[in-house]
Amino acid sequence: MTPQAYERKRERELGKHRAGRARQLQPQAKDPRVWNREEYVRLEQDSFIVFVDRLPGDISKELFQLFSWTGRINDIYLSRKMRNGDVYLFAFIRYTTNGRALKAISKMNSMRLRGKEIFVREAKYKRYLQGKDCGRHQRYKEKGGGW
């Protein structure tokens, strides 16, 4: 193959690649599975959070299965801490509706799970998000404290 033929072939291949790349960069329909910050903040403000305490040390994915029958769960935060040399587990479960969260509290509180009685209640505080005061931050300011 001559150098000129090789150059022409290379330009054609690069042209196809560039054209293909341009097609990929065109705006596409928004994928509903992809979350952005605004959607996350809206979900955080419109959801209802349940606090689950005294969980057994070997629970993980089955926590979702255990609570999903009460309603649609947005997400679960499971925390493992060490207390007095033992593993201490608690979780926050975020529901889409208040009714489902209250159902989880009434049906699942004091339930025995692997020999331990779990404690389920509404979470007291929400996180501090985008300059908006939630929960304890607002109460702290009302009592005369300030940041």
Automatic annotation (TrEMBL):
<dbReference type="InterPro" id="IPR051106">
    <property type="entry name" value="RNA-bind/splicing_reg"/>
</dbReference>
<dbReference type="InterPro" id="IPR035979">
    <property type="entry name" value="RBD_domain_sf"/>
</dbReference>
<dbReference type="GO" id="GO:0008380">
    <property type="term" value="P:RNA splicing"/>
</dbReference>
<feature type="compositionally biased region" description="Basic and acidic residues">
    <location>
        <begin position="1"/>
        <end position="16"/>
    </location>
</feature>
<feature type="domain" description="RRM">
    <location>
        <begin position="48"/>
        <end position="125"/>
    </location>
</feature>
<keyword id="KW-0508">mRNA splicing</keyword>
<keyword id="KW-0694">RNA-binding</keyword>
<keyword id="KW-0539">Nucleus</keyword>
<dbReference type="GO" id="GO:0005634">
    <property type="term" value="C:nucleus"/>
</dbReference>
<dbReference type="GO" id="GO:0006397">
    <property type="term" value="P:mRNA processing"/>
</dbReference>
<dbReference type="InterPro" id="IPR012677">
    <property type="entry name" value="Nucleotide-bd_a/b_plait_sf"/>
</dbReference>
<dbReference type="InterPro" id="IPR000504">
    <property type="entry name" value="RRM_dom"/>
</dbReference>
<protein>
    <submittedName>
        <fullName>Uncharacterized protein LOC127741504</fullName>
    </submittedName>
</protein>
<feature type="region of interest" description="Disordered">
    <location>
        <begin position="1"/>
        <end position="30"/>
    </location>
</feature>
<dbReference type="GO" id="GO:0003723">
    <property type="term" value="F:RNA binding"/>
</dbReference>
<dbReference type="Pfam" id="PF00076">
    <property type="entry name" value="RRM_1"/>
</dbReference>
<keyword id="KW-0507">mRNA processing</keyword>
